[in-house]
Amino acid sequence: MNPIYAAMRATVFEEMSALARARGAINLGQGFPDGDGPADVRQEAARALIEGPNQYPPMMGLPALREAVARHYAEHQGLTLTSDQVLVTSGATEALAAAILAIVSPGDEVLIIEPAYDAYRPLIERAGGMVRTLTLSPPDWRIEVEAVDAAFARPPKAVIFNDPLNPAGRAFTHAEVALLAAACRRIGTIAICDEVWEHVRFDGRNHYPLIAEPGMAELAIKIGSAGKIFSMTGWKVGFVMAAPDLLEPIARAHQFLTFTTPPALQTAVAYGLGKPMRWFEEMRAGYQHSRDLLASLLADQGFVTLASDATYFLCVDLPASGFADDDRAFCLRAVEQAGVAAIPVSAFYGGESERRIVRLCFAKRDEVLVEAVRRLATLR
């Protein structure tokens, strides 16, 4: 067995979701919505499935989807992309895997920003790379000049930049994005930009893609996710955008991972990406309502939450909320005693970390959130 996987424990998502199923608990741990996504997009997939074709689509993705991706990001983020700069993958995690395998050679150092999506570290190590970390701290999770200078003092081959930051619900400011871009430019570090939450941002916040920063078009790889955009996490349709010199080796790696993605889903995503701007605004407003509801319900019960700029997630500060448990102990007690699954944020660090923050998913119906908080209040 490869030692990377042989020594690996089940992920915290598997663990908490299994406990939730076994106990009939409300699952606010794993990040998936209650609904099944927009009906018209699903209907387009059904039509394409019946009418075909259903054989191998092009390895790079259907031309219609690659063109739709380029148009979508021109409209929503002002990016100037051509379809030749777009690769379709079987989800954003496959996109990450292809990008890492294409760029990282044995012995290369790769910087990740913690708390970090838990796939980054094993993917880097499987490619033979060595992980270095830039650690952010609650409650603000800010990228500071001093931390960036220290992290780039020994030049990394690549940095993985997750914006918005999945574990913490943080959307980075333009100043923070520009700071990271400047560090990459100085030494030619490649930025793998995991931007799957780019559309799920609140309070009117803009998204600042790193690839749009001066001098970054040839150094940045942008990764998006239709599953996150359309709240259909099971679809696993992702896309990679990069300059041709970067995209070509990523496509070669993709060719020997999944090769391609179901054509009916690609057709439906191409349709969905052309939805009017108001659809995306209404989607964000719906999740913002859920965020505000959960924060209000928790506050009424004495829980102290951190700011949630983006994603489906809201974090609770345990000591500030009056709990002596560490985050893992609290999550185990919550699922076993209160019937609510949550995620300890310490699981998103590779080494020692603060163990006081718990993450809850608010992409649920109002009545589910009301009942979940009622149950959590019994833990006091």
UniProtKB/TrEMBL annotation:
Sequence ranges assigned to domain Aminotransferase class I/classII large in this UniProt record: 25-375
Pfam families (alphabetical): Aminotran_1_2
UniProt entry keywords in alphabetical sequence: Aminotransferase, Pyridoxal phosphate, Transferase
Co-factor(s): pyridoxal 5'-phosphate
Name assigned to this protein: Aspartate/methionine/tyrosine aminotransferase
Organism of provenance: Sphingomonas vulcanisoli
GO molecular function: transaminase activity
Coiled-coil intervals, chain numbering: none
The organism's place on the tree of life at top rank: Bacteria
InterPro entries the record matches: Aminotransferase_I/II_large, Kynurenine-oxoglutarate_AT, PyrdxlP-dep_Trfase, PyrdxlP-dep_Trfase_major, PyrdxlP-dep_Trfase_small
